[in-house]
Amino acid sequence: MRQRLRRAIGGWRAALAVGLRPSARRMLLVSDGREYTSEQQFAPIWRHRTRLRRDLGLAIDWLPLDGPIPSSLSHYDLVGLKISFRRSAEAVASTARRWAGRGPRLVYFDGDDDSAILWPALLDLCDLYVKKHVFADPADYARRFIGKSNLTDHAARSAGRSFADDIIPASGGIDPARLGALHLGWNVALDDRIAGLTVWPADAPRTIDICGRAYVAPDKWLLDLRAPAVAALESLPRDWAVAVPRERVPQADYDRELRSAKICVSPFGYGEICWRDFEAIMAGCLLVKPDMSHIRTAPDLFVPGETYVPVRWDYADLEAACAPFLADEGARMAIVRRAQARLAEALSPDWFVARMGEWLERADRQR
To answer: Boundaries of each Spore protein YkvP/CgeB glycosyl transferase-like domain copy (predicted)?
Structure first.
């Protein structure tokens, strides 16, 4: 109730800021609020709601998923739906059917960390299916994955990890012909955590050559993605100042660590992209990360040699990838500054309003 009231007040303020002009479109966001990182997909919508109202005529309201469908639904042009990945496929499809075909265009916001599509049935029930990042080759959606995603599949095939007892033992196998509703939205670079950071100069004094927080407990499947990174980091030349910590630290200590490092190695996690990628850029680190060429995302801070440095998924080339930038501080800072500039642009209201404008045009065409 408190969250609903806070968002209602925000809507009134947005209306007052633009002189109470009637909105051209109304969107109702509906979610269960169960997964914080997924809910953050809505963060830039709330953050820029006044500009969205002023520039696009878009007014935004929110409703908890488990509440009744409002009698005022016909007043909305769009319904944006978000559901926790922990719910069953049957429950999700049933929920989507409740909202589909009632007048407003139905948009599903997939806030999962990975690039896969967990519930293919939503592609047929929704007018648009918005993801944070998508496979660069649509044919990859036809692949059958062990576990929830291409990353669990990689862990299974490279390290023999079993997902037979996982809540999602297999996924994929989607006919690319069903992808007409798939739409690339925006990634976690626009989350509140990143928007609240301060840019740290690339040329600030730095005492750590390379840092990499890649360690995970042995009972986690992420170990199969991270262990090669830890091994590669620990085998780097001894005359390099390398930090490979295994213990958790307070956020302030972590931020200081990044601001002290020239290079940050950021491995994959539950998805390809994480906050650390953008925290590193904001801290003035050169981002080094497994090759990202298999996905498309926005904002795209993963342009090889321009905004990040790619390495193999097994990290066999980590030393060779980092050495030139430890030897040439100018080259390192040039990439960092380009990445910081592009991230700053993406965090601006103008960038997001333009992105939402494209999204609304696509939604109109899907009708």
So the answer is: 243-350
Tens digit of pLDDT for each residue in 144-158? 999 999 999 999 999
Q: Are 260 and 274 in contact (CB under 8 A)?
A: no
- Can you tell me which residue has the tokens 């409703």? 63
Domains and CATH numbers, the chain: 2-190+349-366 (no CATH), 192-346 (3.40.50.2000)
Instruction: Give the amino acid at 228.
Output: P
Give residue-wise pLDDT tens across range 249-263: 999 999 999 999 999
Q: By the 8 A CB rule, do 133 and 295 touch?
A: yes
What residue has token string 């998924």?
313
pTM, entire model: 0.92
